[in-house]
């Protein structure tokens, strides 16, 4: 019974989403009604011109079961000409989560984050005119995600496997063109006593000819052993993922189709 | 007439709030077999209305005393359980057993301080490590029902094998799968199998510490137990008692579907949010808590299924 209600609600949401595709809803009033929005606009977007824009979608569970691994999917593909997407969480002790620059790939990225308490999770997409288009959603969580030790802290396996990349491309079926990868890294925030910040900083995705699909800059709140989901766009063939962490440890992996 | 109705309504509301104010779980011992009684919890998640009365507990009246299996989710639950036991027998409690380390099964231990409290070694370790954090979380979920609740750790280590307590012969079986250590208590005299949370009945199973392959192996052994000559009643950790293995099959069907759904989603290249958004199959759609437990289980189980696919172990 409860599930049927959930179904009809999701059907309704799908209808709303379909309607919103037809007419973009934009405005200057925070749809998430967060007391921190003014600070966010100042500190994260440097007071640049912005509008709330439902063409920038942030998908995350309303209630996160595990604050250490909250799945977030950002989809700004409905907005043309996106050059940069900045993801942040108003009430996290470290607000910035990651930033990505879609080039040959569509403006779409899935990942997981650590959240310290219930917070809006937002994505601001910058178009060529320098304007930020902001979307987001509230995530409720029991919290503690940023000040809990990583699982790696309890074992030494990560030292042997640090920066090990595993991944796969999907070339057929409903998810053709999709690339997923996982990188072994503790992603320590520096907020746990005695454990300095140790996290991935940059990942570049290129095709075999060196043409760039996407550049991703990652900050402390990205979850341990990060998993990314992206669409490879029009390019075919293997994808190279190259990156490094804040201690200069580099990786270079090829993901074949 | 109308005024009487209103007054009646007002009285009812007063009565309702008086019950809540007294934090009365309304525990009534239900006889499931000769000398064996159960308290059947609501098939719900923790909230401030049920106060955490969501799991089953049991007691066995032995010749020389009472054997209690699981103690509920709070000091109040433990105290009220003790009072409800006293309404059935005036024998003293000889032993309290904790089947596993989940807080709806051991946070009433405090009401039994002074009585030996037994659990498997791994369960004792897990309660010592995680018990306080569990209690803190239940204060958040169940509110004032938890007032005064503090961790009372088990005091005695139990192991698989026969155990004679207060003149009654028990058979202890040590499994894992729902958690790192799951104890099943068989009361030889009555043929009651107290299965703990290896078995859910009429409620979706929970998986925060699950190893599903081990859990399924434990279910096979439990089902074999129900084919033994002396078997009479199966008491699951959540849901109604049963005289058949149906709840075991129900739990198995959910788990088999769940791990298969995780594997398939990972093979299809789904992102975790897409896995969360998937509809439940019709056979589970009306199972209480199916939608919420599915979402919780995606968080528990999908990352490992995904890792298998990305690392090329599951093509």
UniProtKB/TrEMBL annotation, chain A:
Tree of life domain: Bacteria
Pfam family, any one: SoxZ
Protein's UniProt keywords contain Signal: yes
Residues annotated as signal peptide: 1-24
Keyword annotations of the record: Signal
UniProt cross-references to InterPro entries, sorted A to Z: Fuse-rel_SoxYZ (IPR030831), Ig-like_fold (IPR013783), Ig_E-set (IPR014756), SoxY (IPR032711), SoxY_sf (IPR038162), SoxZ_dom (IPR014880)
Residues annotated as domain Sulphur oxidation protein SoxZ: 179-254
Domain Ig-like SoxY stretches: 45-146
NCBIfam families, alphabetized: fuse_rel_SoxYZ
Protein name in the entry: Quinoprotein dehydrogenase-associated SoxYZ-like carrier
Source organism of the structure: Zoogloea ramigera
């Amino acid at each position: 019974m409860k599930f049927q209600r959930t179904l009809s609600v999701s059907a309704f949401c799908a209808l709303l989403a379909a309607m919103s595709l037809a007419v973009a809803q934009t405005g200057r009033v925070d749809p998430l009604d967060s007391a921190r929005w003014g600070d966010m606009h100042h500190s994260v977007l440097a007071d640049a011109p912005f509008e709330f824009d439902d063409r920038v979608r942030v998908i995350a569970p309303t209630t996160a079961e595990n604050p250490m691994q909250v799945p977030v999917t950002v989809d700004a593909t409905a907005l043309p000409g996106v050059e940069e997407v900045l993801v942040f969480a108003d009430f996290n002790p470290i607000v910035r989560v990651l930033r990505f620059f879609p080039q040959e790939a569509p403006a779409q990225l899935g990942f997981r984050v650590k959240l310290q308490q219930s917070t809006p999770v937002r994505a601001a997409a910058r178009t060529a005119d320098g304007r930020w288009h902001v979307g987001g959603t509230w995530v409720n969580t029991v919290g503690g995600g940023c000040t809990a030790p990583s699982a790696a802290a309890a074992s030494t396996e990560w030292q042997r496997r640090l920066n090990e990349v595993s991944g796969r491309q999907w070339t057929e079926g409903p998810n053709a063109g999709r690339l997923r990868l996982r990188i072994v890294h503790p992603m320590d925030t520096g907020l746990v006593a005695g454990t300095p910040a140790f996290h991935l900083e940059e990942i570049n995705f290129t095709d075999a000819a060196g043409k760039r699909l996407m550049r991703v800059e990652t900050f402390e709140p990205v979850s341990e052993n990060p998993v990314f989901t992206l669409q490879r766009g029009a390019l075919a063939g293997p994808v190279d993922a190259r990156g490094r962490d804040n201690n200069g440890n580099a990786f270079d992996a090829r993901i074949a189709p | 007439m109308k005024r009487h109705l209103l007054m009646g309504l007002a009285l009812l509301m007063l009565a309702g709030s008086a019950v809540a104010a007294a934090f009365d779980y309304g525990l009534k011992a239900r006889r499931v077999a000769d000398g064996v009684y159960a308290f059947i919890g609501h098939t719900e998640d923790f909230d401030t209305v049920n106060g955490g009365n969501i799991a089953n507990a049991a007691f066995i009246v032995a010749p020389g005393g009472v054997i209690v299996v699981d103690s509920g989710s709070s000091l109040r639950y433990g105290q009220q359980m003790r009072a409800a036991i006293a309404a059935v027998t005036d024998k003293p409690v000889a032993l309290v057993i904790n089947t596993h380390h989940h807080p709806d099964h051991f946070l009433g231990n405090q009401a039994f301080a002074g009585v030996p409290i037994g659990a498997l070694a791994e369960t004792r370790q897990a309660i010592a490590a995680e018990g306080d954090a569990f209690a803190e979380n239940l204060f958040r979920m169940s509110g004032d029902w938890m007032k005064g609740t503090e961790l009372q750790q088990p005091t005695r280590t139990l192991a698989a094998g026969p155990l004679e307590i207060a003149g009654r012969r028990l058979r202890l079986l040590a499994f894992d799968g729902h958690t790192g250590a799951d104890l099943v208590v068989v009361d030889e005299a009555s043929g009651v199998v107290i299965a703990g949370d290896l078995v859910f009945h009429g409620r979706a199973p929970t998986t925060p510490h699950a190893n599903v392959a081990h859990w399924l192996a434990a279910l096979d052994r439990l089902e074999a137990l129900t084919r033994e000559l002396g078997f009479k009643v199966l008491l699951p950790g959540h849901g109604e008692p049963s005289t058949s293995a149906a709840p075991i099959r129900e739990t198995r069907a959910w788990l088999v579907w769940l791990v298969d759904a995780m594997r398939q989603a990972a093979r299809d290249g789904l992102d975790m949010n897409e896995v969360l958004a998937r509809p439940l199959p019709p056979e589970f759609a009306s199972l209480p808590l199916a939608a919420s437990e599915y979402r919780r289980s995606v968080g528990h189980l999908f990352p490992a299924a995904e890792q298998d696919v990305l690392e090329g172990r599951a093509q």
